[in-house]
Amino acid sequence: MARAVAVPQLRWAAQPATAGWAALTLVAASAMPWSRAGRDLGSWVADSTGLALASSSSLAAGVLVVAAATLLAAVWPGPERTRGAALAGLALAGVGLSALLVALRGTPLGPGAVGAVLGFLTLAGFGLSASGWWFVDPFLSAAVLWAAAFVLLLILLPLASVVVASVWVNGRLTTEVLQRTLSSPAFFALDHPGTARNELLLAAQVGGVVAVLAGVVLWRLGWGRRALRGAALSGLAAAALMALYLGFGALRNSLLLAVVVGAVSTGLGFAFALLSERSQLPTRRLMGPLSVLPLITPPFVLGIAMLYLFGRRGFVTYRLLGLSTDAFFGPLGVAVAQILAYTPIAYLVLVGVVRALDASLEEAAQTLGASPGHLLRTVIWPLARPGLANAFLLVAIESLADFANPIVVGGGKPFLATEVFFAIVGRYNPHEAATYGAVLLALTLTVFALQQRWVGGAFYVTVTGRPTGARPQPLPGWLDWAASAVFALWMLLVILLYGSVFVGAVTRLWGFDYTFTLRHLQDLHPQGWHVLRTTVRLSAYAAVPSVVVGFLIGYLVNRVNFPGRRALEFSSMLSFATPGTVMGIGYVLAFNQGPLLLTGTELVIVLAFVFRNMPVAIRAAVAALEQIDRSLEEASTVLRAGASLTLRRVVAPLARSALLSGLVFAFVRAMTAVSQVIFLITPQHNLATTQILSYLEYGSQGRGAALASVLTLLLVAVVLTLQLFSRRLDPRTAQLGAG
Q1: Are the beta carbons of 101 and 67 closer than 8 angstroms?
Q2: Are 328 and 336 a contacting pair, CB within 8 Å?
Q3: Domains 249-515 and 524-739 are alike in CATH topology
Q4: CB 40 within 8 A of CB 88
Q5: Which residue from 26, 493, 163, 167 is spatially nearest to 305, judged by alpha carbons?
Q6: Which of 613, 718, 622, 711 shows the shortest CA–CA distance to 662?
Q7: Integer Cα distance of 87 and 76 in angstroms
Q8: Distance CA 499, CA 305 (A)
Q9: pLDDT of the residue at 320
């Protein structure tokens, strides 16, 4: 269990800060507008200040009275615990009164309301710390309340809005839309009326056969009574997979795609991770740059390339093979594009797992006479199982959430992510879209639960800190060559696909006229360049808050003990584990009216970026903090430095490599985002990824390829620059250079 950093509660040291916050809260609540007119964030309503509202609203007057009382409590020279308890009670009452006033007025929030709520939250944190209810620094106590408020408002509220909108229609609770959507053949159907066979019976028969065979095999392996349970689970899994294969509809397509892409990408990622760490061939040196390239480009760029190479007029299928086929214009094309795009994600997860395997365990097993197959099954596989489960979870979620590839190369087949989009844009039915979003959310949580169930509560510690002279065993020759051949094929395909996009950007008309031209690049003026500048600007706005908020929450959940710590950590990670399409529709439902009216503004796009990418900064912060000795923070505390100063002067410099990695990731993911912002863009606030999709939708493939090429080159330049900057900041590099 994480220990709380003990911070002496100095009676008079924190009092000026408390009094200053109380004064700011009173000024915000009384002198600043509580409302704004419409979506314009600067259109404040002048006569909505707290003083103006107090003349006609007893609730507003109560807020001002509480704000004044908190100022008196902050400067009252009484016992600190008593003062802290009074301050905490008054501030929490101020939060409740302010929220009630905002809800009853129903007008979009102005700076007065925001300042009052945040000010009261800060004072509540100071009060809880001073009263001794929370034995943490006042800054950290206030940070906990701020983080909880932001997570509740910007993660949990949108997700709850999706679930509620699926059953709350026209002001009443009903399951009509839910039942109609889930019973529609577009969602899922198993028995096809056009076939003579009974698909449901066939799936049950396959499940029964698999259950019997699995039971026999498990019994012979010595499972005993457990063989019955294993056989039943195997039969159910086989029946479910057969039903998915035989059925049709959005649920079937998305689930089958997620299973196939997750399994293949995880397998390839594990093979490439073994190659990276244990191969004796020179191809291992190519693993780094080629594994990162698909991560710094929009995933649907590979979908565009699939059309260029393997479409009806594709260079390979039509020009080289003389085939005019739509085989890759459908689920097969989507699967190939996703596997190529998401295998690097699995690789980056698993390469650390393979690197952390204790080689002495392998040597011990070989000394005891274990064969390579037995070694793989009994040593490497159990130790790699958590990493494999994590990789599969991430890839499956990315596949379920992928919106652009099914649009580009899906061939009109329904997928859950695309049905959310068409329900909003095509059928103008937000309740149907919410139903599809709720299904996606349920699937994601189910995959997460299955992953936790599979990994279980076992411990998988291999890094003990004790020195070992063992060296990792190299791959067997045949496996090394086979895996290298697969990687070479993967590498060749990726190079061809990306090359086709760049060539398509300077080709007059792909498939018909390959004459060199710069017309597509010239046609990006002015719209294409405008959306690219907007994308860079909004991504830059979101990158720093993503890292700061994520690092702060990571510090809180790793270093501070407070009630609800695990709940805050889990809720903070939900935005990353949830498909972007669900978060996008959630933001539309939660922030399209009332006090939280934010749709149509740049702010809602920035917030979507921040809280979508923040979990990566949380995990990076936790990983970095695990390597920082707590005694450094305790020494800073002994020297009477507050938590904010310790974070700024001690912790942040030691974790700057993780912070910079989080910054790069947040910027790149924001630049390439599409599913979570497809519902939030407007003609005034369009983004590069959605503009590329728009070009493709209207048949301008050349301009789409041109903008995608520019975006890819820009991101490569940004990542290389930040990596060079990171090396300059690394103290170990500096020491080597000085030596």
Answers
A1: no
A2: yes
A3: yes
A4: no
A5: 493
A6: 613
A7: 10
A8: 8
A9: 82
pLDDT at 23: 94
Which pLDDT score is estimated for 362? 66
pTM: 0.84
The token duo for 676 is 């979570």
Residue 573 tokens read as 């990670």
Q: Give the pLDDT of residue 11.
A: 42
Domain boundaries, the chain: 7-135, 196-247, 249-515, 524-739
Average pLDDT score over residue span 221-241: 83
State yes or no: cis peptide before 414, omega within 30 of 0: no
Query: Strands 513-516 and 172-173: what pairing?
Result: unpaired
Q: Considering only CA atoms, which of 388, 391, 303 is closest in space to residue 345?
A: 391
| Token pair listed for 301 | 């760029």
Q: What percent of the chain has pLDDT over 70?
A: 88
Asked if residue 92 has pLDDT above 90, the reply is: yes
Residue with tokens 């094309």: 333
Q: Is 323 a residue whose pLDDT tops 90?
A: no
- Burial class for 494, CB neighbours closer than 10 Å (0-12, 13-18, 19+): buried
Q: What pLDDT is recorded for position 532?
A: 93
Q: Which amino acid is at 195?
A: T
Tokens standing for 507? Answer: 């080709």
Q: What is the rounded CA–CA span in Å between residue 663 and residue 539? A: 10
Contact 608, 591 (CB under 8 A): no
> Which tokens belong to 413?
């087949």
CATH for 524-739, options being 3.30.930.10, 3.30.1300.10, 1.10.287.130, 1.10.3720.10: 1.10.3720.10
Whether the pLDDT of residue 681 is over 80: the answer is: yes
What is the C-alpha to C-alpha distance for residues 322 and 313, in angstroms, rounded to an integer?
A: 9
Residue 656, both tokens: 């700057």
The superfamily in CATH containing domain 249-515 is MetI-like (1.10.3720.10)
State the Cα–Cα distance between residues 261 and 402, nearest whole angstrom: 12
Residue 1 has pLDDT above 60, yes or no: no
Angle CA 405–408–410, to nearest 5: 75
**Is residue 354 a contact partner of residue 277, using CB atoms and an 8 Å limit?**
yes
The predicted-structure confidence for 349-383, as pLDDT tens digits, reads as follows 787 777 766 666 666 766 666 666 666 667 777 77
- Helix/strand/coil for 36: strand
Give the per-residue SS3 of 469-516: CCCCCCCCHHHHHHHHHHHHHHHHHHHHHHHHHHHHHCEEECCCEEEE
Q: Is the pLDDT of residue 149 over 80?
A: yes
CA distances from 660 to 162, 558, 729 (A): 34, 19, 10
Q: How many CB atoms lie within 10 A of CB 501?
A: 22
